[in-house]
Amino acid sequence: MSHELGHVVTEWVVLFTEDDPLVLDSGETIAPVEVAFETYGTLNAAASNAVFICHALTGDAHAAGHHGDPERPGWWDVMIGPGKAVDTDRFFVVTPNLLGGCQGTTGPSSVNPATGEPYGLRFPLFTVADLVRVHRRLARHLGIARLAAAMGGSLGGMQVLQWAIDHPDDLHAGIMVCATARLTAQNIAFSAVAREAIMRDEHFHDGDYYAKGERPEVGLTIARMMAHITYLSEESMREKFGRRIQDALTPRFRFGVDFEVESYLAHQGEAFLKRFDANSYLYLTRVMDYFDPFGDLPVAIARLRDVTTRFLVLSFDTDWRFDTAHSRDVVRVLSSAHVAVTSREIASPYGHDSFLLDLPEYLATVAAFLDRVAQEVGGRAS
Amino acid sequence: MSHELGHVVTEWVVLFTEDDPLVLDSGETIAPVEVAFETYGTLNAAASNAVFICHALTGDAHAAGHHGDPERPGWWDVMIGPGKAVDTDRFFVVTPNLLGGCQGTTGPSSVNPATGEPYGLRFPLFTVADLVRVHRRLARHLGIARLAAAMGGSLGGMQVLQWAIDHPDDLHAGIMVCATARLTAQNIAFSAVAREAIMRDEHFHDGDYYAKGERPEVGLTIARMMAHITYLSEESMREKFGRRIQDALTPRFRFGVDFEVESYLAHQGEAFLKRFDANSYLYLTRVMDYFDPFGDLPVAIARLRDVTTRFLVLSFDTDWRFDTAHSRDVVRVLSSAHVAVTSREIASPYGHDSFLLDLPEYLATVAAFLDRVAQEVGGRAS
Q1: CB count, 10 Å around CB of A285?
Q2: What is the ipTM of this complex?
Q3: Of A227, A242, A273, B157, which residue is most buried, by most CB within 10 angstroms?
Q4: Is the Cβ pair B269, A196 closer than 8 Å?
Q5: Do B184 and A292 touch (CB under 8 A)?
Q6: Touching check for A292 and chain B: CB below 8 Å?
Q7: Which of B186, B237, B286 comes nearest A234 by C-beta?
Q8: Is B208 a known active-site residue?
Q9: How many Å apart are CA A56 and CA B12, to the nearest integer?
Q10: Is residue A241 less than 8 Å (CB to CB) from chain B?
Q11: Domains of chain B, each with CATH number or no CATH
């Protein structure tokens, strides 16, 4: 039996049309909305074994398997596959690119049919609840009324929480990894500076850079470099780079790359340009800033009383982007509304990035939780 | 008796000339070197009561008193003045702008006499030891052979440490506040991204922006905004801004400033443009990255055995730019070389910025230490 998914493909579907547009929290509408997604495994006859993967800020639909090069698997290939924590021998896995993204799903770089030009900043601002609206439509399109589980890390986990609150019968289980119910001032500050770097770039042109054949590359590079500092823990940076000099034993005393950590950041910034759109970065960071489902706590708790979802809430002890205090807040509110929740802080030196990594305790915890879910909902016999 | 210094003035002196240039660690030379400085209080007859203030990354010579507007005192006015921790009734205080700076002392924005144009990036890279060379020359110019104390926060404290190592008879006492003997990979990473923001700005022109009548304002603004995140603690940001909306009760859902923390950062970025030069930012952050006086530990300890300086090493419990672990490393090495050192971690919610603030325990600790110094060196009778 293979332990790899092998070759997978991305599919596309138009989920909202001008006759049936996506109506956002703000009242604004978007149409058409096309969604890029992948599926792995097989939906059982009862359509009860679906696991929905919500990606984080810069993820995409290609979560597992490969598109031709086995050396370059999807972003959560350590998590998803035959015999893995999200076992595709038992579960049918659905993973879309987010609304507002730039990897196949309608977003600010898509053409606005009203003008024939890319939306740019005319793309309406949306909320995490709007992301969930699109997810639900995709699930329905695939014949799934109730999910065995929705899961995600960081912004992905925020979608899971919103989904359970807004549609209390949709999710049998929810897995939130290093997520939050509310960004702190410091969290917002990092994203705000990243956005300023993009929006103040001379090549931004108020978001209408597509037609100019140029992009705010400097701003997007700086945004990504800064974000990477927050994704790694201090100790993992210390271990990974220390004060070592790139390709040399002694410092060269210059402003360009000299320390290994500088080379790493420069590479991350560079690679990001190839795959991400600056406007999508603005929209998908801003949706996180405004996320605050527990803002009106009595209302939130009243709504949570109807929630039947069983939660697994995980955090990592060295994550300082969304540290365990964020997860504890989520657990406290869920518990106070008598929602079933299991939580664990996993020891990992790798900071926020841990949710993407092959960490045995982490993967085993998810596997055990989903094993019980499979028994409850009836997984597919392998 | 007044508790304020009142009106003070900046002075200038040429300390190195073409006949007697500043010879740097690298072997390169700079001439002339002019230094802007201020002094407060009176030097006693034995010239034994001088306290030398070393400023941090963006400080200047104007540490205390005011230049006309009593509402806008110098950057360390809480620390320095009659009856204050650095008591100008007892001590003669000297505070210069750093080599490489942009507030009166020779730096990359100064005219290179060899070309008649500003140095820009042709200004040689220098070390913390080079900063100390200039400080010593200023002290000698003022008739001071041995200082009662040298003191500073952050980069200022790094100069104090280097000074004691390189010139073991110069300092009776040294006060290092939230400083370090070595930046971590994360510390370097933040500065690296800031420099990239400046150097990739289209208006940077490889550092020769002066003649073009423009400056890398976007890059410098982004650098400053990012730095401010690291100067505040998470809790002080939470307390100061939380998730409050600027001038409104509810979010406006937009990309521009909406949260108070965004307004704060934008203001800090803006204000910084008025007073700082982008090239100076490059040089003074890079000098910190390369600082590593304990790099060759046996050599450092052997040299420290000659040091007669008595140290006070302070840190703040919420500082995450240079946390207490940095100070502990300094204390451990000093102690292992039998250098007299007192250390304390001060409780303060304000993060790295604490060293600039009116915190009673902090100021009282410095006052008590300097009181003993005054008794030892013979302060001036007030």
Answers
A1: 24
A2: 0.95
A3: B157
A4: yes
A5: no
A6: yes
A7: B186
A8: no
A9: 55
A10: yes
A11: 11-182+291-377 (3.40.50.1820), 187-285 (1.10.1740.110)
